[in-house]
Every structure is written in C-alpha cells, then in structure tokens.
Amino acid sequence: MSDIEIAQQAKIQQIDTLALEKLDLQADELENYGKYKAKISLDAMTRLADKPNGKLILVTAISPTPAGEGKTTTTIGLSDALNRLNQSSMVCIREPSMGPCFGMKGGAAGGGYAQVVPMEDINLHFTGDLHAIGAAHNLLSAMIDNHIHHGNQLDLDHRRVTWRRVIDINDRALRQITIGLGPGNGYPREDGFDIVVASEVMAIFCLSNSISELKQRLGNILIGYSRDGTPRLGSDINAQGAMTALLKDALKPNLVQTLENNPAFVHGGPFANIAHGCNSVIATKMALKLSDYVVTEAGFGADLGAEKFIDIKCRKGGLTPDAVVIVATVKALKYHGGVEAKDLAIENVSALEKGMANLKRHLDNLQGNFNLPCVVAINHFTQDTDAEIDLIKTTVESYGAQAVIAKHWAEGGAGAEDLAKMVLATIENNKDECQFLYPDDVPLWDKISAVATKIYGAAEVVAPKKVHNKLAKFSETHGHVPVCMAKTPYSFSGDASLRGAASGHTIEIRDVRLSRGAEFVVALCGDIMTMPGLPKKPASERIDVDNDGKITGLF
Q1: Which residues face 374 on adjacent strands?
Q2: In this predicted structure, what is the pLDDT of residue 480?
Q3: Is 436 designated active site?
Q4: Is 272 a catalytic residue?
Q5: Which of 381, 425, 496, 552 is catalytic?
Q6: Is the domain covering 444-525 a CATH 3.10.410.10 domain?
Q7: pLDDT of residue 105
Q8: Catalytic residue among 409, 445, 474, 555
Q9: Among this protein's residues, is 334 annotated catalytic?
Q10: Which of 234, 235, 265, 278 is 20 to 30 Å from the Cα of 18, by its Cα?
Q11: 130-239 and 444-525: same fold?
Q12: How far, in Å, CA of 220 to CA of 213, rounded?
C-alpha cells in the first residue's frame, strides 16, 4: 500500500480522547480543529510550570540524497517504539511547507507505518499556521510600501528596504520582481519573494515563548534604512500589534497522533538549508512537561539542522539534548561513495565503505564539537543486503559509537524497538554536558568561520567587501547573536556535487542578512536560494482527488 492508503485505513482516535487519556491535559486546554486535530492553550504551560522536564532526543542525519533519508519516519518510529516499551513519549516535528509537497520531495508527515495523521491535512492547509505566518509577513510588506506612498515620514530609502514578500509555493519567477508600477500604485522599486518557511516571521514564531515575546520580536524586525542610514524597524510603523493578532492562535501547538495513536506536536516549519530548521520552542517545551521522552528532528544533515538546533534553538530556548540519533541509509552512504542515483539499489560494498567518511564527519562533529552521545540508526530499505548492513555496524563501532538497524517504515514502532533500547541506554549512561560551537561574544565573522571550518571542514571562508561592511554594521548592535548558515544540504561544501566528507574547500559567503527580531544573522553561501523552484516533473503533477474526495499521489 502507498503511504496515503496506509494513513487513510488507520484507526485514528478522536483527538480529545487521546489528549485526555495519554497526556496531562485538561479539557478546557484543548481547542479542536475537527475530530483529529487540536491546538493546545498556552495556559497549559503555566499550569505545568513546576513539573520536571522529560528527556530530549534529537534525530538528525548524514548528508542526504535529494529524496531524503527518513529523519521524520525515524523520529515517529522511535517515539512509537518508546511507547511500546512502556515509556511516555511524544513526537515534536515541523509543519510541512507546500513548496516541497508540490515540488521535489513531497510531503513531510513520515511514511509507511511511521506516520503522523491525518496526513493529508498536515501536508496541506493543516490548522492554517503557515497561512497566518505568510499573512503577517505580507501585512508588514504592505505597510512599508503604504508608509512610503503616504508621505514617508521615516524617510525610508526605497533602494534600501530589506523586507521582501513571501508565498508558500516554489515559484522561481518571483525571486526578483518590480513593484509599484502604474499610476497611484505606490513607489516603483525592486522587490522579491522568499518561501514562507524562510521568513523571519517563521523564525520569530518558532523561537518565541509567549505572545508578549512574539510581539516584541516582531516589532524588532529590521525593515530597511532611512536615507541617512538609520535602521528602521517594524515598530516604527506600528506593525507588531496587527501581526501578532494574525499569529496569536497559530502560536498554540498543534496536537495530532501517530498511526499507533501516540501523541505528536507538529508546529512551526523553517527549512534547515535556508533557515534554522527546527519546530517551535513552545511545542518542544510543552512536550517536555507532558512526557518523559520527547523525540524531535532537525532538518537535513547534521551539519545544518543539528548545528542550528544546538547553536540557535538550544542556545536561545534553554534546551539541552540528552542524546542524538543520526539516521543513515545504505543508499545515501553509497551515494557519498561515488555511486550514481540510478545504481543505488545494486550492492556495492566498496562505495559504501568510501561513503562512511560522510557519517564519520557527522559523528565527529556531534561527539567532538558538541559533546553529545550519538546512536546511528540504519533506516532499512528492502534492497539493503546483510553485507552492507554488517559493514556499517562494524565501521561505526570502530568509530566508538553503536549502530542499529531500524525497520519502522515497514513495521511501525515494533521495527524500532532495538533503536529505542539503545537510545535509552545511551541516555542513562551519558554524564557529559552539551556545549556550543562558539561563545556569544566572539565577532560575527569568527562565528561564520567556526561553522565553516569546524563543521564543514573548509580551509578558508571568503566574502566580498560588502559582506564585511554589513557585518561591521550589524556588530554595532547585534554582534552577540548566533549565525544561521544558508547552504546546500547535499555537501559539506557549498557545491552540491562534492559528495562524501569534503575538506580543504573554500566556503563563499555571498551575502548576509540581519534577522533582528529572531536575533541571528543569516549567511548565504554560494548560490543558495531563499525561493526554490519547481523541478521538471513536480510532485503536483501526480496529485489528484477522486469523486469521493479522496486524495491520491500525496506522500
């Protein structure tokens, strides 16, 4: 059966029944969105404030192939397995963007027998959070141009407006546009669109702990500069109140369930290649009060998602992972060993052995740079051979870690029980404390260099003079903030074709942007785009709805 057929045949519990039976929630803290989705009132956090936190498990991965290596399925399967072992566990993952749903990757609600449901809702409009984020972002955009049109009291330089527009669909034609053409339509200027998940509003949404913090951060957004170089903020045009009004309900975590009727928060959705790649701080903190174990994920490979999870989310949210699961697949390891995509199903132990360098780099980064205990989950595919699996296990053991095969896609939680047992043992034996890659007080350029050299293995980092000038300007007020690297997820370098464990390369910083409200600096590496385009054969071409309203082709 397809993923969507499995999801449609699942015996889903009504969400209020699941919430009251499996979580320490009260009926008046649930706001139902139909039978199978609910938002949880932020009042629950106040009531649960004195309850001790559970343990936090981060799921990350090796550098992926374009199809992905199954972080979300592993996250869900591991949580289901922990519940099968009589441990109280919750999933915390990001909300899917419709960009990849209709583009290259398809949906992001898991797959096989390790899914969160209702899958169709989650992958499409869900509870409307991403629409609200897009509306709040574009409201600010409209207010900026309206301010310029009606006299421009702030003396905003239309050439130095830094706030773009967003949409939650991949559309390369919108990357660079001209607005305000025609009489009475505003002041003509260049503009462009990013995808919603790259919006600073999304980052602020995911890093805020309360409505008051959300409003303050929205007011701190840098919208551009006046003609004398004075920074202008969202609060200067009084946008933060209306933006918060659009986001106040979205800020409440979304509760759904796995196919095995275990609780899951799906909330917030920044990409990890162009944003910080983690679900909301509010959902994670609430889950830690509601369960003994919280299994969460960070997008793409550990060089992007895990680094940002630790250096941005954990640093700002006061969180600490107790263990890390690195997802690896035979096909991805062979891909990083030089095998082309069309030949990944063929046994090739030699290429697999070469590709292990990629996994070793990620292990070394997490264990060495961040001081975190790691378990390698081998996400099983039917074409994997015993010889390939044995090689991975033996090689990982030689690195001083452990690897275990996981069959959650085919078997659900039962297929990840060995992984769950290994994770529990790792947490119990861990006596170390997580550490950040760099301190707050080093210069912004040194933070960028630390990520590039220590995590990516680069020999040098280069940037044009305009980047250094911008960083110097940002440092006057925000030199203490972390950096968020926007880089290809398919290589340790800035070149997606350079596989394996690239080292000695040069990382080029093309531009930097100050996310003043989110409180980090985005460094754009190479040709990374903040608005993706659709592939030649987009996933949208195979999605359909029959006469009974059943969706097909969505996965």
Answers
A1: 324
A2: 97
A3: no
A4: yes
A5: 381
A6: yes
A7: 66
A8: 409
A9: no
A10: 278
A11: no
A12: 11
3-128+250-429 CATH, one of 3.90.1150.10, 2.40.50.140, 3.40.50.300, 3.40.1190.10: 3.40.50.300
- What is residue 37's three-state secondary structure? coil
Residue 433 has a CB neighbour count (10 Å cut-off) of 8
Q: Which of 37, 55, 105, 407 is catalytic?
A: 105
Q: Which of 102, 163, 271, 300 is catalytic?
A: 300
Residue 283 falls in the annotated catalytic set = no
49 counts as catalytic: no
pLDDT in tens, 469-499: 999 999 999 999 999 999 999 999 999 999 9
- Report the candidate in 443, 513, 517 with the shortest Cα–Cα distance to residue 480: 443
- Residues sharing a CB contact under 8 Å with residue 329, sequence separation 6 or more, in sequence order: 62, 65, 69, 70, 378, 379, 381
Cα–Cα distance for residue pair 319/484, rounded to 1 Å: 18
Name the stretches of the chain with pLDDT < 70.
1, 105-106
Is 215 catalytic? The answer is no
Q: What are the sequence ranges of the domains in the chain? A: 3-128+250-429, 130-239, 444-525
CA dist 99 and 536 (Å) reads 14
Give the pLDDT score at 288.
Answer: 98
The one catalytic residue in 7, 19, 44, 73 is: 73
- Contact (CB, 8 A) for 199 and 498: no
Q: Is 409 a catalytic residue?
A: yes
Q: Please tell me which residue in 22, 37, 71, 164 is annotated as part of the active site.
A: 71
Is there a catalytic annotation at residue 94? yes
CA 27 to chain centre: 30
CB 365 within 8 A of CB 451: no
What is the third-level CATH fold of 130-239?
Answer: Domain 2, N(10)-formyltetrahydrofolate synthetase (3.30.1510)
